[in-house]
Design a protein that fits this description.
Number of helices: 12
Oligomer: single chain
Largest sheet: 5 strands, parallel
Order of helices and strands: HHHHEHEHEHEEHEHEHEHEEHE
Structural class: alpha/beta
Strand order of the largest sheet: 2-1-3-4-5
Helix content: 40-55%
Radius of gyration: 25 Å
Shape: elongated
Number of strands: 11
Strand content: 5-15%
Distance between the termini: 74 Å
């Protein structure tokens, strides 16, 4: 450990400890591929032993790269955006990059533009935008940034490269599962109307019902919260008492499904004996709901990996449009055959 007043550690110190050239240490620090594995390990060991920390500002001046990716995100308190952020951070770290995060307080176009400009001014190598709401998404489609700009979870992009989970396919899988169990139709509790993810799930649900020749009930808009699901659950319970045919419900996220399950239980309606329920996201608690929830899983780690991979491709000047991440239906105990079959 250095004492007060001692000169800072430099690459030359690492080179001396590892017994390699200064150029070799520079290549290892800057993640250059042309370094033998054994040599790289020796340099990394020397870095750890000395406690050396690269001067990122100086390295940026020399290499023209800060090895930092800027992330603009909204609604980070929600499960999907939070997990996507984690997936991006882990993938960036594995690629030798750090992630600089800016959280938007609002979904306006001006807020998105200001955030991207602020990150660019901080000399990030690229910007990843994670927002699926309203004007912020519209701004991304019109915005021209001086660094690669990658959009996450907004669907296939015409103007900017994007990575996303196929929300429509996930909704189709959920709806098809319920129809194949014998339910004549499937009711839907959507997310907020200004959410692209919610709209994608709504389209997938409706398309699958039409494909099967089933009736399409009027969807009910929720707000992603358990409270919204609980209110809809009580509404469906009242509808059943009036003799309406409500035997299957697909909700746009697991939090709303939790509220609906609680409301149905309070109304004395058994799941899946009388009503089958499917959520979306597969939150860690979903397997422990009562009953365990059938849901659609999004692979956020893969989404993050593809996002960073697309950033690296763009930094190299390559053009690549990745395929969407495929969702997975996870069948648990909240779904069953239509009552009476």
């Amino acid at each position: 450990m250095l004492t007060q007043g001692a000169r800072p550690l430099g690459l030359s110190d690492v080179a001396a400890r590892a017994g390699v050239s200064l150029q070799t240490v520079s290549r290892v620090v800057n993640a250059h591929p042309n370094v033998a594995a054994a040599t790289r390990e020796r340099v990394l060991r020397a870095i750890a032993e000395l406690g050396y920390r690269p001067n990122t500002a100086a390295r940026a001046l020399v290499t023209g790269s800060s090895r930092t990716i800027g992330l603009v995100a909204t609604h980070i308190n929600q499960y999907g955006p939070a997990q996507t952020l984690l997936g991006l951070e882990q993938a960036a770290r594995s690629a030798g990059y750090s992630l600089g995060v800016t959280i938007l307080d609002e979904n306006s176009a001006s807020a998105m533009r200001e955030a991207v400009d602020r990150l660019v001014a901080q000399s990030v190598d690229a910007v990843v935008a994670l927002s699926t709401y309203g004007q912020a998404v519209d701004a991304l489609r019109r915005f021209v940034a001086p660094v690669p700009l990658i959009a996450v979870q907004v669907g296939r992009g015409e103007d900017h490269p994007t990575v996303w989970v196929d929300q429509e396919l996930g909704a189709e899988l959920a709806t098809r599962h319920l129809l194949e169990l014998g339910h004549r139709t499937v009711h839907h509790v959507s997310g907020p109307v200004d959410s692209l993810e919610a709209r994608g799930r709504l389209r997938g649900w409706r398309r699958e019902l039409l494909r099967a020749g089933a009736s399409v009930p009027e969807p009910i808009e929720g707000d992603w919260t358990a409270a919204a699901g609980h209110a809809v659950g009580r509404r469906f319970a009242a509808a059943r008492r009036r003799g309406e045919d409500v035997t299957a419900v697909f909700l746009a996220n697991d939090q709303m499904a939790l509220g609906l399950l609680n409301a149905l239980h309070g109304e004395g309606i058994s799941v899946p004996g009388q009503v089958s329920v499917v959520g979306f996201d597969d939150v860690p608690e979903a397997a422990f709901y009562t009953p365990p929830l059938t849901t659609v899983r999004q692979d956020f780690a893969e989404l993050g990996r593809r996002g960073v991979e697309l950033v690296l491709c763009r930094l190299k000047g390559a053009v690549r449009e990745p395929e969407p991440v495929q969702p997975l239906l996870v069948v648990r105990e909240s779904t069953g055959p239509v009552p009476g079959t």
